[in-house]
Design goal:
By secondary structure, the chain is mainly beta. It is 6% helix and 44% strand. Strands 1-2-3-4 form a 4-stranded antiparallel sheet, with helices on one face. It has a 4-stranded antiparallel sheet with strand order 5-6-7-8, with no helix packed on it. A hairpin with a 3-residue loop joins β5 and β6. The chain is globular, with a radius of gyration of 15 Å.
């Protein structure tokens, strides 16, 4: 864990903690076999009084300058990870949120990629400090700092619900 965490700490990081899990994101990190600033998240599990590395997560479709891990919000079983620089469709740097869910004791798998219905170029969806998850893990709120839907850079918040299949339920 020390080596993985050392590289994250030297490049900037984000954090979240929930019960016996701690999440440390390195948005400027290069995952093993990945690209520069693709980003990664280290998952730590508390064992007794010690924290030990459980796994390292990265986006299934990660690319350079995605900044996966720029924002993190999690429960013990659901983790939302922002990738502010991720481009989708015809948009550039609009950002996405990757959802990971824990199955069993330590098996994490990517289960969704969230994008807002009102996305635009460089909208800063999932930017730092713009992500939260409900205590039961069923709702994720994502900020979109530079949303231009109502006025230039007015911003917005988007809510997604897990019970409905991670669909957008409010904007």
């Amino acid at each position: 864990a020390e080596g993985a965490l050392q590289s994250i700490f030297s490049e900037g990081f984000s954090t979240s903690i929930a019960n016996d899990r701690a999440y440390i994101g390195g948005p400027a990190s290069k995952p093993t076999g990945g690209a520069s600033a693709e980003g990664k998240v280290v998952v730590l599990k508390k064992q007794g009084e010690m924290w030990v590395e459980e796994t390292t997560l990265s986006a299934s479709n990660g690319e350079a300058n995605d900044y996966f891990g720029v924002s993190i919000a999690g429960t013990s079983d659901v983790l939302a990870i922002g990738a502010q620089g991720r481009s989708t469709g015809s948009f550039t740097d609009n950002g996405v949120v990757y959802v990971f869910e824990r199955r069993g004791q330590s098996a994490w798998s990517q289960t969704a990629v969230l994008t807002p219905s009102n996305t635009s170029n460089a909208s800063s969806f999932a930017s730092a400090r713009a992500l939260d998850i409900s205590a039961d893990g069923n709702n994720i709120v994502v900020g979109q700092q530079a949303d231009d839907s109502t006025a230039s850079n007015a911003g917005s918040a988007v809510v997604f619900n897990r019970k409905l299949g991670w669909v957008e339920t409010a904007y």
